[in-house]
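Figure 3 (text version): structure tokens given as input.
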């Protein structure tokens, strides 16, 4: 599956710092590799969306919307019962958010945690806001930029009022060094069923560079390390959560029950069922 770059691949005017796109689809997408070269609101109206970033995963239905930081992510889109998917996308540049912060005369807080994605619940204000975006989208290309600049300030003031300034600062935070980002990406996704290729994409690396960097930090291959972590998590689910092997093998990334039992026995010297009896 090819990498999609947004908003570039939507044929929007790249000279604009704030842009809107009413995205509709009747085709499901499973973990598409996406490069966001602008920050993005995704106001989901139909279907279900999952996004996986370097250190966080969010799954929403049309009761929530997302604010996503520019960068690499994996995106899944599921259709609604009516066999459709729709999301109103509002793209904005780093310069746009910097200008907003300067205009409200507050200092940048270096202590704010660098979060790549936020999920918020719809309320009446946001529902009206999304409807107004769709109205703006019907106007001429000459007037849209002026009105979108006003709408952008409106949604930013709303976020500041309701959720605090940290949401805005997290979009600009870049204080993590490359080693910290790599380790957090790996350890935030250790229980996710991601491939090495997908993890390398989230780290913005080739597969070969990813493997070399991984062995530098963890002193073993990614395949071996992740298998051990999956089995340790399986051990926890069996003994603490009192689940069965049949219930958990898929959850921890195994394609079949027999492959999980075989790997578990190789690590612990007993089958999951034998351990369950202890």
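Below: residues designed for each position.
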């Amino acid at each position: 599956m090819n990498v999609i770059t947004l908003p570039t691949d939507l044929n929007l005017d790249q000279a604009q710092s704030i842009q809107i796109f009413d995205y509709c689809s009747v085709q499901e997408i499973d973990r598409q590799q996406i490069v966001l070269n602008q920050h993005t609101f995704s106001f989901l109206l139909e279907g279900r969306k999952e996004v996986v970033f370097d250190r966080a995963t969010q799954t929403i239905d049309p009761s929530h919307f997302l604010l996503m930081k520019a960068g690499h992510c994996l995106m899944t889109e599921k259709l609604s019962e009516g066999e459709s998917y729709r999301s109103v996308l509002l793209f904005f540049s780093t310069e746009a958010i910097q200008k907003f912060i300067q205009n409200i005369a507050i200092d940048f807080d270096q202590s704010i945690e660098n979060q790549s994605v936020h999920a918020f619940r719809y309320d009446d204000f946001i529902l009206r806001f999304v409807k107004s975006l769709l109205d703006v989208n019907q106007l001429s290309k000459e007037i849209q930029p002026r009105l979108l600049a006003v709408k952008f300030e409106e949604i930013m003031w709303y976020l500041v009022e309701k959720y605090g300034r940290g949401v805005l600062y997290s979009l600009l935070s870049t204080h993590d060094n490359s080693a910290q980002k790599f380790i957090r990406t790996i350890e935030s996704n250790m229980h996710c069923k991601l491939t090495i290729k997908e993890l390398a994409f989230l780290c913005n690396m080739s597969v070969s560079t990813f493997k070399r960097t991984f062995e530098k930090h963890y002193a073993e291959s990614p395949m071996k390390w992740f298998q051990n972590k999956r089995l340790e998590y399986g051990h926890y689910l069996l003994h603490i959560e009192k689940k069965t092997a049949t219930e958990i093998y898929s959850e921890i990334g195994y394609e079949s029950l027999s492959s999980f039992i075989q790997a578990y026995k190789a690590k612990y010297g007993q089958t999951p069922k034998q351990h369950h009896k202890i």
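The longest helix spans residues 144-163.
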